[in-house]
Amino acid sequence: MRTFEFDFAPLWRSTIGFDRVFDLINETQHLEPDNYPPYDVLRTGEDSYRINLAVAGFSPEEITITAQQNKLTIAGRKMEPASKTEHELLYQGISARPFQRHFNLDDHVEVQGASFENGLLQVDLVRRIPEAMKPRNIAIRTGGEQPKLKAAA
């Protein structure tokens, strides 16, 4: 466990609009590591990602995926069995405890879809930058010409 804390005060004075980044760094310093359920984060393309969660023992109906602004939450809760089974559980090695995983997303990263196969939940993400935010070239006019915009290559 970490016992030290960084002071970001000098950076606050010289940066504008990075408040969320410093808050995320401070937040991660105070979290206790919880390794359940295990997961992988993969880059599947230039602007696409995938989160794989190992959720053995859960069905798709017992898992919820919630996307809010810059935050993805994946939660699972086992439903109580409707009736007693005819089998007696002697040893339970597959965890059935409820879980909640939070992932901080960058601006313009959206959930594209999710799939469930063989106890593995796959959540696909894609970064979609609006046209207004993409770089563009500005033509320089001379004399009485009207300005023209060219798309950046």
Quick structural summary:
The chain is mainly beta and 153 residues long. 11% of the residues lie in helices and 36% in strands. It is elongated.
With strands numbered from the N-terminus, the spatial order across the biggest sheet is 1-2-7-6
Estimate what percentage of residues fall within beta strands: 35-45%
Structure summary, number of beta strands: 9
Q: In the CATH hierarchy, what is the architecture of the domain at 34-77 and 95-151 at level 2? A: Sandwich
Radius of gyration: 23 Å
CATH class of the domain at 34-77 and 95-151: Mainly Beta
Overall pLDDT: 80
Characterise this structure.
- This protein has a domain at 34-77 and 95-151: Immunoglobulin-like, CATH 2.60.40.790.
- Helix content is 11%, strand content 36%.
- The chain is built from two helices and nine strands, in the order H-H-E-E-E-E-E-E-E-E-E.
- The chain has helices spanning 9-14, 19-29; strands at residues 39-45, 48-54, 63-68, 71-76, 99-104, 109-117, 120-127, 136-138, 149-151.
- The radius of gyration is 23 Å and the shape is elongated.
Compile the SSE list and pairings.
Elements: H1 9-14, H2 19-29, E1 39-45, E2 48-54, E3 63-68, E4 71-76, E5 99-104, E6 109-117, E7 120-127, E8 136-138, E9 149-151
Antiparallel strand pairs: 1-2, 2-7, 3-4, 4-5, 6-7, 8-9
List keywords for this structure.
153 residues, three-stranded antiparallel β-sheet, four-stranded antiparallel β-sheet, 11% helix, mainly beta, 2 helices, Immunoglobulin-like
